[in-house]
# Entry
Amino acid sequence: MAITGPLIDRFGRVHTNLRVSVTDRCNIRCFYCMPAANVRFLPRSEILSFEEITRFVQVCAALGITKVRLTGGEPLVRADLPRLVRMLAAIPGIQDLAMTTNGLLLAEHAEALREAGLHRLNISLDALHEETFQRIARRSGLDKVLQGIDAACRAGFRRIRLNAVAIRGVTEPEIIPLAEFARQRRLELRFIEYMPLDADRKWQPDQVLSGEEIRAVLEQHFGPLVPVPREDPSQPAVDYSYRDGSGVVGFINPVTQPFCHECNRLRITAEGQVRNCLFSTVEWDARRLLREGASDEQIAQLVRDCIAAKMPGHGIDKPDFVRPVRAMFEIGG
# Structure
């Protein structure tokens, strides 16, 4: 395959991280991601097949992509997902294969995913109180998520992170319980600021519970947190350790402290649209090339064109910010 990397945009950012949405479907309806009802999901014929996803990732690996994360929707509602994991794990150059999941189906799939070659898991856990969980998810199921976390721990994944979206007026009482839960299980916890990607389009800046505010709450309870040097300069989280050595907590602050200057990510939606930013208003159609017999070189050029058009930042903090038409579940988390 006559393709050479790396993928460098006009601001010098080298892209090594690809997020692959495998479905827009989900088994809960979190208000920061999806509408409560009357959701229009893509027909199966429009979703990329495992073979199409694998070919796209192979091309990207030749361009310097080393990390792949499977997202959705909820990835585990896609049938036979371990088969895709095996296909991706076999691609030369892919060093890290991870998945983001809401955890509801994880108990029954964790072992198979680990055996197929999945390295890491990010599990969404916004609340430990059923009432708050249902307020956010608009469905029940906290007990299943907790069972999924336990199953993932038993399966022996390289790293398990818990992701908690922070929403003012909703999740403040969850901060300390989530921290205690993660500390007890030696799991990493990351708080993520609420972003304007909700399908109901009701997001307001005053709903953002900032990472700085959460850190202050944690320090008041646990004592000063110790900054942890970044393993990867492009990682979105700022991490801290507890002084007693009982774990790591991180803060992803895309609204109050944008990290776009170090961004190394691109993503492809479930129906094969390539995006250079979560908040992009433009997409590049890889599915058309994949289904019309395009060469690897043509697919690679599409990826390069996408990266070349990347903006310096998402612009949430700018007065002329235009939020994307599509919600999180349609893009891929």
In short: The first strand starts at residue 7 and ends at 8. The longest helix spans residues 142-155. The chain has a mean pLDDT of 94.
